[in-house]
Amino acid sequence: SQTIHQWPATLVQPVGSPLSLECTVEGTSNPNLYWYRQAAGRGLQLLFYSVGIGQISSEVPQNLSASRPQDRQFILSSKKLLLSDSGFYLCASWSSGNTEAFFGQGTRLTVV
Amino acid sequence: RKEVEQDPGPFNVPEGATVAFNCTYSNSASQSFFWYRQDCRKEPKLLMSVYSSGNEDGRFTAQLNRASQYISLLIRDSKLSDSATYLCVVNPEVYNFNKFYFGSGTKLNVKP
User: Fold this and answer.
1) Phi-psi region of A97 (alpha: psi -120 to 50; beta: other; left: phi over 0)
2) pLDDT > 70: what percent of chain A?
3) Any bridge partners for residue A88, and if so which?
4) Residue B94's pLDDT is what?
5) Which residues from chain A sit within 8 angstroms of residue B103, using beta carbons?
6) Residue B46: its chain A contacts at CB < 8 A?
7) How far does the CA of residue B35 sit from the closest CA of chain A (Å)?
8) Are the beta carbons of B49 and A100 separated by less than 8 Å?
9) Among A54-63, B52-61, B92-101, whose mean pLDDT is lowest?
10) Mean of the pLDDT values across residues B76-96?
11) 3-state DSSP call for residue B70?
């Protein structure tokens, strides 16, 4: 099965600072990759998904961007964080032949 | 309208009780449905897929009602360890798995 590595696990950043969260996948090739955000007490909101290197689709307009420089690497970025960017960020991977999406352990971001 | 909607709960039930959650979806062409379980401050993990004919896994039964566009999860003989948030997941795509939409989750508290 797939293993999703996400780091860091916890992050506290000041408003206006940049952000870079990284996700790497093991155990598969050419996966679909996803970034979700979960605000406190809320469900998962799909932010971005990617079907291949350099291919990014954005679900909602926001202060964030995503990139996929390699097949199994997905990066979430921001140039200037807002307070509203706080939340639990989850990277997920789905590959053809699997019935489920696998998740990383998440990054808990607090913008102060 | 949201792709997937769930009653947030919480559902507070005693051990041994039977509890059921429903989840409605907006895209009638949706083909794939799942229930995920999320423990506090952890990543979601697949509980079970939902098949058209319904499926059962031990104390858990999932059903799909296409006419009314909802899926359900029934938990029998609730255990303390069942306490978690249950997320309904829908893939609205017909021929690919580019998107997984999550409901906001239903919180279950099983009391002694």
Assistant:
1) left
2) 96
3) A38, A108
4) 58
5) 43
6) 100-101
7) 10
8) yes
9) B92-101
10) 87
11) strand
